[in-house]
Design brief:
78% helix; mainly alpha; elongated
Length: 106
């Protein structure tokens, strides 16, 4: 049998415990940082606002209300389309990351 140095083992356990506590303190969300859910929600709201603005411009152009130019309408529609596609890609990456994390063995 091998001799176990109890003091060395205890010191290793204490240092590991201190590192874990330091990591947990760093991992705690700081009050000045935005929450991930809030950031994601605001991004979804921005995409929705872009789509609603494009729809309103298209409606104004079709009905002849205001001085809406066709170029502005097409630009707003394309901006809304690109932002929606980008949001969809981010969502797909988040879902893939979630699936990968959930399939990891514990």
């Amino acid at each position: 049998m091998s001799d176990i140095n109890v003091n060395q083992l205890l010191e290793t356990m204490r240092s590991a415990s201190a590192r874990i506590k330091a990591f947990e303190a760093d991992a705690a969300p700081a009050p000045d940082r935005p929450d991930f859910g809030e950031v994601l929600g605001s991004a979804v709201n921005a995409v929705n606002d872009s789509q609603m603005h494009a729809k309103q411009l298209a409606t104004d152009f079709q009905t002849g209300q205001g001085e809406t130019d066709l170029v502005d309408v097409m630009l707003a529609i394309q901006t809304a389309s690109v932002s929606f596609e980008a949001m969809s890609e981010v969502r797909n990456k988040l879902v893939d990351a979630y699936k990968e994390i959930m399939s990891m063995p514990v």
